Amino acid sequence: MPNYWLLKTEPTVYSFADLLREGRTTWDGVTNNVALKHIRDMRCGDEALIYHTGNERQAVGLAQIVSDPYPDPKQKDPRLMVVDVVPLRWLARPVTLQAIKADPFFADFALVRQGRLSVVPVTAEQWQRLLAME
Questions:
Q1: Residue 2: pLDDT band by 50, 70, 90 thresholds?
Q2: What pLDDT, on the 0 to 100 scale, is given for residue 110?
Q3: Which end of the chain is less enclosed by CB atoms within 10 A, N or C?
Q4: Dist CA 40 CA 51 (whole Å)
Q5: Could you write out the three-class secondary structure of 90-125?
């Protein structure tokens, strides 16, 4: 059974549309220790919501993790891990942070509790609820 994640990206830097166009990317640039721990916990076959930060603040697409974590080949620090990601599809309707925060079900969701974290785990129950909101 896959694990589920939420990956944040600033759409003016790298958007879900960029991922769709490229077909595959290395999810890099993560330096926060907690977020790096989450990357180390990822496995090939896990699924992720791609979340646009900045002015958008909404989940916009689904992606799949297609590699186990490995050291970022662009960095000299072996603690900086990355995974490879492919797009699956746009969400039928973006799921906004405002809608997530308005639902008491998500009170313990890391996106709500640790808003600055760029990689957060999503429970199976949260995943199903988020997909039902699209």
A1: confident
A2: 92
A3: N
A4: 19
A5: EEEEEEEHHHHHHCHHHCCCHHHHCCCCCEEEECHH
Residues contacting 90, CB < 8 A, separation 6+: 16, 20, 60, 61, 62
Torsion angle, alpha carbons of 34, 131, 49, 25, to 10: 150
> Are β-strands 70-71 and 81-96 bridged in parallel, bridged antiparallel, or unpaired?
antiparallel
Give the DSSP letter string of 8-40. Answer: EE-TTTS-HHHHHHHS-EEE-----HHHHHHHH
The closest of 61, 81, 66, 77 to 131, measured between CA atoms, is: 61
Q: What six digits make up the tokens of 53?
A: 């930060």
**In the predicted structure, residue 133 carries a pLDDT above the cut 90:** yes
Residue type at position 126: Q
Measure Cα distances from 1 to 30, 34, 128 in Å. Answer: 25, 23, 14
Identity of residue 64: Q
Sorted by sequence, the CB contacts under 8 Å of residue 98 that are 6+ apart come out as: 57
